[in-house]
Amino acid sequence: MSYIMVDVESDGPIPGDYSMICFGAIVVEPSLSRTFYAQLKPISAQWIPEALKISGFSREETLTFAEPQTAMEKFADWIEAESSGRPLFISDNNGFDWQFINWYFHHFCGKNPFGYSSSNLGSLYKGLVKDTFVNFKHLRKTAHTHHPVDDVRGNAEALLQLKEKYGLKISLG
């Protein structure tokens, strides 16, 4: 099994009505060297300027990005090549990130290589330390910039800390 940390930036709150603009992924392992990044052309005429602003792109820029089907097929190929065994989806906001990745995979590729489930890094940390009022973000080394590769790297660093410092029993790789 391979844990793959994923982060999504979008131009609105839900897939279909709005678009996934870019996303990043990283195989969670000590080297943190295997990453994926894609920028996707919008699939909808709807977009929320404040949501798009978080990604740092203008609407005009996003219209030049890759076709979503091409990007998702490349991501599926990367997952197949880079994961050992079943790939496991994890993110710091899986309610948001999962909905986009799952919808886009099913819509453009007919299936999701991650299957039907995802994990939430924040919930994992809260359970591990037995405190629902804390967050894991102090465990990141890489700054959270809203560039998906920076964000997945920081979140993967935090997950590695859960294993190393807190004794989380997890198989990575």
Into which percent range does the helicity of residues fall?
25-40%
Q: Which fold name corresponds to the CATH topology?
A: Nucleotidyltransferase, domain 5
- The structural domain count equals 1
The end-to-end span amounts to 6 Å
Averaged pLDDT, please? 97
Total of helices: 6
pLDDT under 50 segments (min length 5)?
none
CATH class designation: Alpha Beta
CATH superfamily, please?
Answer: Ribonuclease H-like superfamily/Ribonuclease H
What is the tally of beta strands? 5
CATH architecture: 2-Layer Sandwich
The gyration radius over C-alpha positions equals 16 Å
Task: Name a few traits of the molecule.
single chain; 173 residues; alpha/beta; Nucleotidyltransferase, domain 5; 5-stranded mixed sheet; 6 helices; 17% strand
Report on this model:
It comes from Tumidithrix elongata BACA0141. Keywords: Exonuclease, Hydrolase, Nuclease. This is Exonuclease domain-containing protein. InterPro entries: RNaseH-like_sf, RNaseH_sf. GO terms for molecular function: exonuclease activity; nucleic acid binding. This protein has 173 residues and is an alpha/beta fold. The chain has a single domain (2-164), classed as Ribonuclease H-like superfamily/Ribonuclease H (Nucleotidyltransferase, domain 5, 2-Layer Sandwich). The protein is built from six helices and five strands, in the order βββαααβαβαα. It has helices at 49-55, 59-62, 68-82, 94-109, 121-129, 148-164, and strands at residues 2-10, 20-27, 35-39, 87-91, 119-120. Strands 3-2-1-4-5 form a five-stranded mixed β-sheet, with helices on both faces. The mean pLDDT is 97.
